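#struct-queue
[09:14] JT: dropping the first one here, sequence first, then the structure tokens:
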Amino acid sequence: MSESRWVEVCGIDDIDEEDVIRFDHEDRTFAIYRTDKGDFYASDGYCTHEKFHLSNGLVMGSVIECPKHNGRFDIPTGSAKRAPVCVDLRTYPVKIEGSTVYIHI
């Protein structure tokens, strides 16, 4: 695996409030979120339950609901919040520089 670094993801206007997008980098996939308060977060892209991509899910405030079985995760912490998910998501630091979103991977 390559060394940890900040990677440019998208522009801040590319994600609406209470939305999520998919970001693929090298051999990994991530979910990039914008909460109802306008804050940006990042996590692994697949649900820990059955590996369905979270970019197809529903963001409600600071929670992402997986589109396959409606399991929920807390976006800022990645913690599993509703069955059938029971394994937390891995999260990544996010920074905004100017109008660009970066994640540290």
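[09:21] JT: and here's the second one, same format:
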Amino acid sequence: MPLYYIAMFALAVSQRDPCEAFGQVVRIIVAAPGSALGRYPEGNTGRAGVGLTKPMSLPADLAELLNGP
């Protein structure tokens, strides 16, 4: 499972946001396998308030970092 999902859950817990923490648990169970298989769109922030399949554009500076020099 990608560490990203654990990090998002830890952030929700540290912010004492029970709705977000619950949403992250759901994402860990449902989305982690889908992400590993490449089924979810690039750019999705991973927050609980954003649908799993909602495409989101990457900001140019982040896209540059992810794609390398």
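[09:30] RK: nice, looked through the second one.
[09:31] RK: Helices lie at 3-14, 18-36, 60-67.
[09:31] JT: good to know. The chain has one domain: 3-67.
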